[in-house]
Structure formats: structure tokens, C-alpha cells
Design brief:
Number of helices: 7
Shape: globular
Structural class: mainly alpha
Largest sheet: none
Order of helices and strands: HHHHHHH
Distance between the termini: 41 Å
Strand content: under 5%
Amino acid sequence: MLLFYKIIIAITFIILIITYRKDKNYKIKMPILFIVGLAFCVDDIIIPLTKGTQIPKNLIYNLYSLIDIGVWFYVVFTILKNQIPRYIAVFLTLIVYTSSFIELFFYDNINQFHTTSFCLYELILILISIYYLYFNLKIDYYSFSDNIHFWIIAACIIYHSISFLKFTFMGLYSSSKNIQSAAFGFYLLGLLSNLLFCIFICIAFMNDYFNKLWKTI
């Protein structure tokens, strides 16, 4: 299944590169292309290279997650720049980074994944994404199907909702004797969230690409 996950990320990255165009949405598409490419590099290059070394895997994932937080907050707040004031966006971003810093350096350590603060980040992102859908559902004749923003926000809601449930249950099971039997279930949840995320992001890029292509024909 690990190979399946790597194939999904690789195919997604290739599709995003092929369908990427520098247009009015490039401020949203470029960060997504970057973070998906970074995920591919982390899992397929950096992690294998650090095997047999003293570099903990969680240290790499912590560094990646901190970049991921910044990228996705930037993407979502760029999409909602007309609905959410900039000072609120900056305030929420600082809250997540501050809680992550406290958890990594004072509560736990840098070699353990910052699950609590990451769940906080996911919860904020889910609520903001739901707010976007609520705000736009009130608009008459708003077209979701051919709107790149909708598919990106939908990807955020699905991915982070499943991931939030996974981390929450992992926290509940961490002190349980059944943690080993539950580990496979957590792995499947992670795989499902990544699969759905990749599908929705690919739809967003491909839809935007072909919509603009049809207009030139």
C-alpha cells in the first residue's frame, strides 16, 4: 500500500505540472504544486536517504508539516481574501505556529509529531472552508462545478476532516492495549484522505485547464 500511495502522489504531481498555467489563479496553483512536489520529495527521496541515519523520521515530517501549514493557510486565505480580513488570517496563522512551537519545544520534543497543534490547524482550516461554502451557497447561480476555488476548498474539507478524525482517534488509542490492532485502520484513513485529496486537486487543475482551453478553440 505504501507503493500505491507513492504512485498516487507521483501521478498527481505529473498532472499538476501538465495542467499548470500562469494565469489569474497562479497565486493559488503554484503553492499547491510546490507542496505536492515537496510531499513527493519527502516520501520518495528524503525519507529513503535518511534510513540508517540518526535523523528521526518525525523530525522530517514536523518540518514538512510546518511548511504545509503556511502554504495551505496562504492558499485558503487568498481564496477568501474578500470574506476574511487579513488581520484575522494573520492572527489564526500565528496561533497555529505558536501552539506548534510550544508543543515541539516545551510540551514534547522536535522528534515527536506535533499532533495536538496540527489538529488545531486542521480544525481551523475545516471551519474556514465550511464558511467559504456557506458564503457562496447564498449566491444565486454560483457555479461550483467549473470553479477551481470550490474544488480546492472541497479537497481541504475532505482531507483534513478525515485526517482530524485519524489523529483524534490515534490520541485516544495511544494509551490503549489495542493500539497495534488499530494502527492498520489509522493507516487506511490516512491513505483514504490522501487519495481523495489528490483526486479533488487534480479535478481542480484539470477543470481550470480545460475550461480555458475550450475558450481558445
